[in-house]
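User: Predict the structure for this protein chain, please.
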Amino acid sequence: MRQPADDQTTGRRSDVRELRPAPGDRAPLPRHEAPHEDLPLDRNQAILQAAKQVGSTLKKAEHPFALAGSVAVYAHGGTQNLQHDVDFCIRPEDADAVAATLRRAGLTVYTPPEDWLLKADCLGQQVDLIFELAHEPVTTELLARARDLSVDSVLMPVLSPTDLLHGLLAAFSEHHCDFGAVLPIARTLREKIDWAALRRDCGDDPMPAAFFYVLERLEIIPPAGPPATASKEGPR
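Assistant: Here is the predicted structure, written as structure tokens:
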């Protein structure tokens, strides 16, 4: 999952220690050099295999987490058209422990320049471990709203459709506003999304408001009701 941060740059979080490959870990391999001999030929299936392995590892260690990104959309009934990586949401205070668990499982975990996630390599696929969504920390409450769903036969907590779309809309800015990437998700999950909550939380910002307008014109969602106004008639 990519998250724009150039317009609201913040310093590295003080509660997440710098994480680099542990002694004995191999450095992250360039994409073209990653081992693929045990991967299925289909890229979608390769991403699902990586999601299943990391999700199972986090479950066994009892870490609070939720699957996010395109694999979460797939788990909620979207098409199997997965993107370039696997996304998981974790709490900032759990980042060190999650990294240690994945390293013990044989994965390489490292810190990218962005200070809102960690990255890991699993079966040659990139795994993002996100502890901030649109500049807001991942919370216990957010993870509690996740539902256990089957991800290619493996049960794991998956971020709710409303929270998935909220994270995408809240990340819109003048520098990053790709309606085309979010529109298929909104169309696919529209019956599972709390649109009233999204309008309440995001609708005052110009980019999400424009996106809601596009969805209305495409008849994906109904128009919002007129804002409540005071009666023009005086007291009787």
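The chain is about 35% helix and 15% strand.
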